[in-house]
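Supplementary Note 3. Input sequence used for the single-chain structure prediction.
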Amino acid sequence: MKSLENNNSSEPVYTLAVASKLSFTPAHSIRQYIDKGLIIPFKTETNRHLFSEVDILRLKCIRNYLHDQGLNVAGINALFSIIPCWIIRSCDMEDRLQCDAYTSIKSPCWTASNKGLLCRNTDCRTCEVYKLPEKCSGPKQFIKEITNT
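The predicted structure, written as discrete structure tokens, is reproduced below.
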């Protein structure tokens, strides 16, 4: 198997049990992260979650934020919520004003109910904004990186 860090595939291939093992994250914690919008795995027709290599990296990043950076789930959600996705995606002002991610800081852009035209038909699991935390730097470094984009 290829190293996860070298292959950022968004292809959903891992079950919850395998994702739990690969990310060293208990399955119940992964379910909590899904409920809180920190991760958006693929959902099959039978409602089973499948995870990609990107998701595994994201789970490792969440684990890092929790254990090494001292954040809790609410703090991680807040950190992901301040990502200026409209800058990263180069949204025009009309798109921004139609999008909850621009007008509200309550949750990450991939959980926004109302999205601008640019994001409306985009699979958030493959979006560059959703993939940002793969680098998993500390919160300040993370903010520096995304504001320099």
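The chain has ten helices and two strands. The mean pLDDT is 84.
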